[in-house]
Amino acid sequence: MCLKPKVKKMNGFVLFITGGWAAGITLAPFGIYIKEKYLTWTKIINHESIHWKQQMEMIVAGAIIAAITVGILLLLGISSWWLLTSLAFPFLFFYLWYLIEWLIKFILPPYDSAYSALSHEREANAFENDYEYLNNRKHFAWLKYLFHA
Questions:
Q1: Of the candidates 139, 98, 143, 121, the residue with the CA atom closest to the CA atom of residue 1
Q2: What is the DSSP letter of 35?
Q3: Fewest Cβ atoms closer than 10 Å to its Cβ: which of 37, 41, 61, 140?
Q4: Tens digit of pLDDT for each residue in 104-130?
Q5: Percent of the chain surpassing pLDDT 70
Q6: What backbone torsions phi and psi does residue 33 show, to the nearest 5 degrees?
């Protein structure tokens, strides 16, 4: 995955969808959006760059899942306009995973740490100060944080 993220200043739309609380957010394939006052903070940019890699992996995985699903449905003779939703699935797969994992971790104790317990956040937090991490990171490295505390 060689697409390099563009780091951009947060615009009004991104501020709206984050509620203004996030210092930065990664929205692959569009870029990494950072609040203006944090644009020079390498720690935040590195954290979001880890999320960029995670999201690019999930886009590829989502595309494979969507292609297999559409192939099976077409082989079964099931076709309809709603199959067009498979085009959006790869881009939404990361957020769907993120939401489901958050809901599960919100329901299970400790209840107040669902966000920080997310596998994607745990990997990004663990390596946000390691500026060489992305050069050596293995694909889907966040999976090892899924079940281990």
A1: 139
A2: -
A3: 37
A4: 999 988 878 899 999 999 999 999 999
A5: 98
A6: -110, 125
